[in-house]
Amino acid sequence: MSTGNDSILDAYLFETNGLLEQLDSIVLAAEQQDTFSDDDINSIFRIMHTIKGSSAMMEYNSLMTIAHRAEDLFAIIREQSIAIVPESLRPNLFDLLFQTIDFFRQEIDHIENGQSLTDDIDTLLQKINSFITQIQGGGDEAQADASSAAPSASGAFPYVLQIFFDEGCGMENLRAFMLVTSIKDICAEEEFSYYPADVEHDASTAAQIIESGFRLSFAKASDRDNAIHVVTDMGFVRTYQVIDESPETEAEPQPSPEPAPQPEAAVQSAPPAQPEPQPEPVKAASPAPAPAAPSASKAENTVHHKESLISVNLSKLDTLAAVVGEIVITESMVTASPDLKGLRLDSFTKSARQLRKLTDELQDVSMSLRMVPVSATFQKMNRIVRDMCKKLGKQARLTLIGEDTEVDKTIVDSIGDPIMHIVRNSMDHGIEDTAQERIDAGKDPVGQIILSARHTGSEVIIEIQDDGQGVNYDAVLNKAIRQGLAVPGVDYSHRDILNFLLAPGFSTNTEVTEFSGRGVGMDVVKKNVEDVGGTVSITSEPGQGMTTTLKIPLTMAIMDGMEVSVGNSVFTIPIHNIRQSFKIQPSDLIQDASGGELFKRMGQFYPVVRMRDLYQIPEGRENVEDGILIWLESGELSYCLFVDELLGEQQVVVKPLPSYLNSFNIKSRGIAGCTILGDGNISIILDVGNLYTPIQ
Fold first, then answer.
1. Residues 335/677, Cβ–Cβ less than 8 Å
2. Is the pLDDT of residue 676 over 70?
3. What is the C-alpha to C-alpha distance for residues 33 and 657, in angstroms, rounded to an integer?
4. CA separation, residue 116 to residues 8, 62, 106, 111, 288 (Å)
5. Is 688 in contact with 551 (CB distance < 8 Å)?
6. Least packed by Cβ within 10 Å: which of 208, 385, 501, 534?
């Protein structure tokens, strides 16, 4: 596929995925209210209209057909109000829409993965047709179909537009169909007709349109005038001709379209064609703003609003971040050059400060371009809870907190699956099976799942909390023993037992269900979160529920770090993990029963980790009075790190270590990555959360 077609496909997928997310939110909110507002109905109609048109342009017939029929359904509801759907049929309507959304998403997945689209759409199509028949009594549907296929010969339609498309534009019949559907937004179906008639389903009409053009006939001259605006907005229209026919001429059984455009004086030209004959799906699928012709000022405002946003390929942002990272490294190399030591260069120092200020601003801007709110990921969980409530017969509600919290786009994409697995676990394992069980336990009969996000320094904390039955520690331990993950007779702490839930292949279900029992889920959560530099922790109280906490970095590219030295080695500690640093004496340290060292601060005792001993660095300092103690925090973990000296704060570019080092389990030893210093040397970036593991 050519690059041009790739860009069109990317635009189609981006637009359609966004529309499906919007559609899902509308239907979920409407189901809670058990009705659709007028705005909801109009929005759903426009979404289906857009998906239909853009899918037709891409020749995705299954998507186009389903969207077209769903559009017909909401056209009926829009014309006659939601009251046409009896309350007894409302649940069926919601289910039908969710099935339609799922079908669209399935087809989009096929497209993204290069698979063939589904040919068998008869079942879903029949459900939509049956529902239309139910709310209409069966008569209007046949009448609508007959009207759609009616030829354009009638004395009632004397005002004609003969339209000719760009040569070689392709899919002329579908372009004609798009033109018809756009005109339906400004003109009632009974007020105009067109020829060839069956352009939607009969591909052979494309040849007829190429030879003789496409003919639109109107009952009113004003409708034709309005239609001209629609025609001229279509990028694939080459010319059009205005014809006023007498009733006698128009009354022939099958009108014979003009074989070719009339001479120059009789032909009005549409705007010049774009360099690319085939328009992008976004443009092709844009519905008219309203049934009536919009005012000029309203149209101008709409265009201005659309131009305020732009979609950028994520790979371009990755390239930008890489370039900015190299600029940061180069700036450090210039300002920290060994050649400058001992020199008094006031002008250079002033320029270096200005350069640092600009590189900081450039970094902030480049990072902000990648930051997106987690709201889209969070909103998808509403659908998970809704579907599982219906299939499992449970009652539960989802509460979202901190939806506006922004995280790097790459990280947001990576945490979608982990959050989905955890929410499904809360529904399947956490929330009690019946409302009576919850009532007997003194709880609200409706279960509660809380999904929250908040910033803490340079990381975001995502929590999934439920008020269900919690973890049965004995059952988990027994299952771990049977699977060989635990040793009988060993006294495991609650934290150790909860960690078994994160082991690959572990499941407490005794049978495989649609949602669990395969041993795939929480281990995927752990892997995906760790892949983006995050951590997973679980807490639970039997009978009260479970909380899963994800600690995710805001971005993986550039960070503020403190450079420290131990012997001849240099390490980088993330600034957000540093609480305080101290110069101490041996008397400030206390020995615990196991021989470890503790440091007392603000009435609390904190374990001391010596970097020299941890990484076996022979050149490191042994006497505490010769080094410095750094108080570190990572979530609930707090301890002190003893190093030789602080070298200073430095903005660093995080570089991943080679993948083959993962086989040595370096992450569990407190190594998160590396960075290149200003003098060209490499510094190991420490993972404060994994550097020290407290004794349980």
1. no
2. yes
3. 52
4. 18, 11, 11, 7, 31
5. no
6. 208
pTM here? 0.61
Residue 616 falls in which region: left (phi positive, over 0), alpha (psi -120 to 50) or beta? left
Tell me the C-alpha distance between 680 and 116, whole Å.
Answer: 51
What is the SS3 assignment for 205? helix
Cα separation, 140 vs 159, in Å, equals 27
Residues 582 and 163: their CA atoms lie apart, in Å, by 82
How much is the pLDDT for 146?
37
Amino acid symbol at 153: A
Which backbone phi and psi does 571 adopt, to 5 degrees?
-125, 155
Half-sphere exposure of 152 (CA within 13 A, CB side): 25
pLDDT tens, residue by residue, 620-631: 898 989 999 999
Instruction: Tell me the per-residue pLDDT of 275-306, one tens digit each, with 9 for 90 and over.
Output: 333 333 333 333 333 333 333 333 333 333 33
Structure tokens at 334: 């210039």
Distance CA 684, CA 674 (A): 4
C-alpha span between 202 and 162 (Å, rounded): 20
**Burial of 662 (C-beta count, 10 Å sphere; 0-12/13-18/19+):** exposed
Cα–Cα distance for residue pair 641/611, rounded to 1 Å = 7
Mean pLDDT value across residues 406-412: 83
